[in-house]
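Hey,

The postdoc asked me to send both predictions to you directly instead of through the lab channel. I've kept everything plain text so nothing gets mangled by the mail client. Protein one:
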Amino acid sequence: MFKKICLYNLYFFLFLALTVPLSVDCSEVESLTNSRRTAIVVAAERVSPAVVSVSVLKKELVRAAPMFRDPFFDYFFSGPLYERTVKGLGSGFIVSEDGFILTNEHVVEGAEVVKITLSCGEEYDAKVIGTSKKVDLAVLKIEGKNLPVTSLGNSNSLLIGEWAIAIGNPFGFLLENPEPTVSCGVISGIKRNIRSQIEDRVYRNMVQTDAAINPGNSGGPLVNADGKVIGINTFIFSKSGGSIGIGFAIPINTAKETMREILRGEGQKPWIGLQVESLNPVMALALGSPITEGAIVASVDRGSPAEGVGFEAGDIIYGMGKKEVASKGDFDSIASNLKSGDRIKLYIVRNGQRYEVKMTVGKR
C-alpha cells in the first residue's frame, strides 16, 4: 500500500513538472504576440487592402542623340525629334465601395492610359473623373462593387508628434507582389506652405511628416494610429531623390472638399488637352518648319478636345484666335483665359504646311 502511495505521488509530481512550465511558456508566447500587434500594425492592416497602385502611360516628345559631341555641330545638326511612350507610377486609395479613388494630379497628368492594381492583384482600367492642379488632387473611377475602402479622418485635429504612417506602392510594376509598403514616423508640422522644386506650383497648408515617402508613394494615404486617413502623400524635399525625413501630404479635409467640388462639376478648369514646349530654331530646322517661334505640341491628352480635332505631337502652334503664339508662355497665357464651351481657331504648322483648326474648349 505504501509503495502505491509513493508511486501515485511520483506520478503527480511528474505531471506538475511537465504541465506547469508548458502553461508558463504558452502565456509568454501569447504575451509576446500581443506586444507585437501595436497600433501601427493594426492601422496598417485596416488601410492596406484599400491602397492601390496607379500605373499610367504617357507620350512625350524627345530628341535623339546628336551626331557629334561638339556644341557648334549640335546647335545646327541636333538629333531629330521623335515620340515615345513612357510609364508613370504612383499610389492611391479607394474611398467608396463602387470604385472612387483619390491620388495626386501630377501622377495622372497627361496620361493616355490609367491602370489600377489592387493589393490582392486585381487590375482595372480607370477613368479620370476630374482633377485640381491647384490642390494636386485627382479623382479616378473604376468599375467595381463591394471594394475595400479607407476611413477618412479629420486633419484639423492633428497633433504635432503623433504617429503618422505612410502607405503606398513605391515599386509598383517592378515587383510581382502588389501589396503596399508601410513606413512610420510622426507629424512634424502642420499648415506648411511650400513652393515645388520641380513645377511652378505652390502647396498650401500641407502636413509635414518624417515618415519615409518615396516617389512611388505619391497619392497614397498618410494614416494616423487609429487607421484613419489624415493626408495624401505628395512630395519630399530631397537632393538625392530618396527620402531624408522631410515629406509633405495634402490634408485630408482639403482633399474631401476638393473631391466634392470635382464631383459637383465645380472648380474644374477649361481643357484643351495639349502639353506644349517653346519652339526654338534648332527644333524648327529639324522639323523643316517655315517658322522659328511658336509652341510645339509635346503630347495630346487622351479623350481631349485637341485629340478630337486631330492634333498630333510635333504640331507647331503659332496663333490662337487673333493673338500670336511665340512661346509656351504665350500659349499658356491665352489658354488660361479661355472658358468651357468657347470656340477657338488655332493656326498650326505640320510637316512644313500651314493649317487652321477650329476647336471647342472642354472642361476637366
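Protein two:
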Amino acid sequence: MQKLKIKNKNLFILITGYLLLTTLFFGCATYPRREEMKKTSPLQDKTFRIGKTEYVYLKDICKIYDLVWDWDILSKKLTLYREGLKIDLALGSSIGLINEKIVDLKDKVKIYNNEIVIPFSLTEEISKILLPLPIPPAFYKISRVVIDPGHGGKDPGAVGPGGIKEKYIVLEIAKRLKRYLENRGIEVILTRSDDRFLSLWRRTQIANRKKADLFISIHANSSRWSQARGFEIYYLSDRMDESSKSLAEIENKVLEFEEDNLPKENIALAATLWDILQTQNRAQAIRLANYIGRYIERLDWIEHRGVKGANFYVLRGANMPAILIETGFISNRIEGKLLSDPYYIQELAEAIGEGILSFKEEYERTNGFTR
C-alpha cells in the first residue's frame, strides 16, 4: 500500500510538472507571438482601447489591407473583400465570417466617434490568410476616376428653353473630360456612356467596385429665375443654405424614377452609414472642389459661384472623395446656349480636368495632405 502511494505521488508530481511546463511553454510562447504580431502589424499605431478591448477603425483596415467594402441595407451586413478574402460583419455583433468560416472577434463591431470600429483581433485573422503581408498599393496615388453624367434615360434632368435637356449636356461634358484625363495618364470610368437610366446607388456602387480614387458627378443647374447663372461645386453635407437645400431636393427627385426604390427607412439607414464611413473623405472633397474652382475662375464666360455643401444622395454612396458639379444654368438662355456649344463645353471639361490634375499632384506630393 505504501509503495502504491509513493508511485501515485510520483505520478502526481510528474503530471503536475508536465502540465506546469506545458503551460509555461505554450502560455509564454503564445503571448509574445501575439505581441510580436501587433508590433509588426501595419496597424500597430492605429489601435486604441475601448474598455479592455483593442480596436481599429474600419477605414484603416480597408486601407492597409487594400479591402473594398459593401453595405447590404436589407440584411444590415458589412462585407469586406479582396481577391482570396471575404469578410462578413454586422454592427453590434462579435461574430464574423472570414471566407465562410466563423470567427470570434472577442468584442462587438460598433460605432465610436462617429466611425465604425472593429476589434483588433480581426486583423490577426486577416494576417493568417494574407501573410506575408504584401506591400499595399501606393496609398497616395490618384490613378482611377469615376465620372458620373447625371440623369439619363427616362430621367431627362433639367429642361431649358427650346427643350434642351440636362442629360445630354452632362454626358457630352463627361465624355470630353474622360478623354482629357486619359490623355494625361488617368484611368477614367463613366457610369453611363449613352442615354440610359441608372439609380443613384448603382452609380456609386460602380465607383466603389472599381475602387476609384475620386467620384465626380456632372450636372447642369436650373432655376425659376431665368437670370440665374454660374458654376457651382458641391460636397456632401447636411449643413446647407436654402439655395443648396432646394437644389438637393431637385437632384434627389430622381429617386421617384427608380423602380427598385427602397423603403424610406432603408434609404435613411443606408445614408446614415455611408455618411459615417465617408466622413474622412469630406475634407479631401472640399480640397478637390477648390482646385477645380480655381480653374473655372479663369474662364471669362462663366461665373464661379463657389464651393458649397448639400445633401445629395448620389454622393452618400461613394467610398472616396466625391463632389457634384453644376456646370451652369440651362434655364438661362445665354448660358444654356453656351452649354450646347462644343467649343465652350471643351473649355469647361479642360478646366475641370486641370483642377483634378492639380489636386492629384498635390495629393501625391504630400502623401494625402499629411505633410
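Summary for protein two, as requested: The chain has two domains: 48-130, 144-365.

Thanks,
C.
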